[in-house]
């Protein structure tokens, strides 16, 4: 078993010493890395998500795990507020 086979939690000091290798590991395996200081998680390194540029903003939000709470065509701005913004 190598360091690449286990869930990774690493100290800030160790991360600093092996930064490039760890970035390559996350890129290659797709598995995130938690960076800790004094046993407390302070940062997380995870693979970047690539989005299809053809997606509409609300579709991109859903791909990233977000939720849209409005019906299609529904605005978050009231009609009277919208008119005052003109």
What does the model show?
The protein has two domains: 1-48, YefM-like fold; 49-86, no CATH class. It is built from three helices and three strands; from the N terminus they run E-H-E-E-H-H. It has helices at 12-29, 57-63, 79-84; strands spanning 8-11, 33-37, 40-45. The chain has a three-stranded mixed beta sheet, with helices on one face.
Give a short synopsis of this structure:
With 86 residues, the chain is an alpha+beta fold.
Write the topology of this structure:
Elements: E1 8-11, H1 12-29, E2 33-37, E3 40-45, H2 57-63, H3 79-84
Parallel strand pairs: 1-2
Antiparallel strand pairs: 2-3
Class by SSE composition? alpha+beta
Helices, by number, come to 3
Question: What is the molecular shape?
Answer: elongated
N- to C-terminal distance: 64 Å
Identify the CATH architecture of the largest domain.
3-Layer(aba) Sandwich
Arithmetic mean pLDDT: 81
Indicate the proportion of strand residues. 15-25%
Looking at the chains present, what oligomeric state does this protein adopt? single chain
Detail the poorly predicted runs.
1-6
The helical percent reads 25-40%
CATH classification class of the largest domain: Alpha Beta
CATH H-level homologous superfamily name of the largest domain: YefM-like domain
H and E order = EHEEHH
Spatial order of the strands forming the largest sheet: 1-2-3
Number of domains: 2
Any idea of the CATH topology of the largest domain?
YefM-like fold
Largest sheet: 3 strands, mixed
Radius of gyration: 21 Å
In total, the number of strands is 3
